[in-house]
Amino acid sequence: MSHTYERRVFAPVITPFKGSLAIDTPRFAAFCRWLIGQGAGLAVFGTNSEANSLSLAERRELLDYLIQDGIDPFRLLPGTGACALPDAIELTAHAAKLNCYGVLMLPPFYYTSISDDGLFRYYAEVIEAVGSSRLRVFLYHIPQFTGVPISHALIERLVAAYPRTVVGIKDSSGDWSNTETMLQRFPGFQIFPASEALLERALPLGAAGCISATANIQPGGIATLLHEWGTPGDAGRQARVSAIRAVAQRQPMIAALKHVVAHFTLDAAWRTVRPPLTCLGDAEGAALIAQLTALDFSMPAAERLSAVCRQPRDCAAAASAPAPGC
Fold first, then answer.
1. Of 222, 223, 295, 306, which has the maximum CB count within 10 A?
2. How far apart are CA 240 and CA 72, in angstroms?
């Protein structure tokens, strides 16, 4: 197993909604450009993107929009896993046609106690149906949500069958022993922990970087940690990104991320989530911002993303306005 890659951070990009709960596509694209400018790749349609609250058509159209808007497809790692095999094939084929860096594929969920044989057949059917040499599949292990773990034996089997296609995995299990075992067992496989707090342990074992929810709010800090790993200051950089991660994950992650982005972009509309999710409460949101402020946290140039703050006098009102749908 041999793959060449650079360490990268991908953000499962949060999805902005209008008051009507339709996707705010221009706002989404602007935020994607900001993330890229801070050094992050775009794992659009991940868990924290509210991907499973988006339709297939919305995901296809949003991906098309990003490409048409000038986003480099090599920056894109869209989520294409789905319960229904035809849906997974459709989304994966679309991403491959656009020459995205790869796809991040959940296993089919809802049915539990699925065998490795069934999962192998699912991934194999997608790969064979897409039939593209440009396709790069990153498995997505998040059993606490899916109820369907991706075993080490399944990884080994998929890599043996599709060595140029199945090239990595995101481990969102939260189980360090699982991540550590994969890093030791599959050298050269692109293994991404789901938290930057694990990088100090994962990078020496060959981790490819991380795909982290909190890359939405601290992409630059994580990118710097990855790019400067092994140089003086590692401990301080690691401590800082870990502290920010710890604050954010004390609240429901999607609502917390959107609250932070709303605050620092001076754009309360960012707080909106699609049901059944709910926005962060005012008290929880204020506590979150206070805790981040105590860490001297900032999102460089984020205020330039505001769609509503046109004049300086409007900024305070924009930042504190109630979000549509909250």
1. 222
2. 29
* pLDDT tens readout for residues 263-319: 999 999 999 999 999 999 999 999 999 999 999 999 999 988 876 444 443 444 445
pLDDT of residue 2: 38
Residues with catalytic annotation? Answer: 140, 170
- The Cα 42–Cα 308 span in angstroms is 24
Tokens of 188: 């050269």
pTM for the model stands at 0.93
CA distance 111 to 245: 32
- Reported as a pLDDT band with limits 50, 70 and 90, residue 4 is very low
**Percentage, residues of the chain above pLDDT 90:** 90
Percentages (nearest 5) of helix, strand, coil residues in the chain:
50, 10, 40
Strands (E), 27-67: 41-42
The DSSP code sequence of 61-97 is HHHHHHHHTT--GGGB--B---SSHHHHHHHHHHHHH
- Span 7-59, pLDDT tens digits: 999 999 999 999 999 999 999 999 999 999 999 999 999 999 999 999 999 99
CA angle 113, 173, 196 (to 5 degrees): 165
Question: Residue 241 is which amino acid?
Answer: V
Q: Show the DSSP H helices in 24-172 as ranges.
A: 25-37, 56-68, 85-97, 116-130, 143-146, 152-161
Q: Give burial (CB, 10 Å; 0-12/13-18/19+) of 275.
A: exposed
211 marked ligand binding residue? yes
With residue 191 as reference, give the H or E element that holds it: strand 190-193
Angstrom distance (rounded) from CA 211 to CA 302: 21
Residue type, 228: E
DSSP state of 283: H
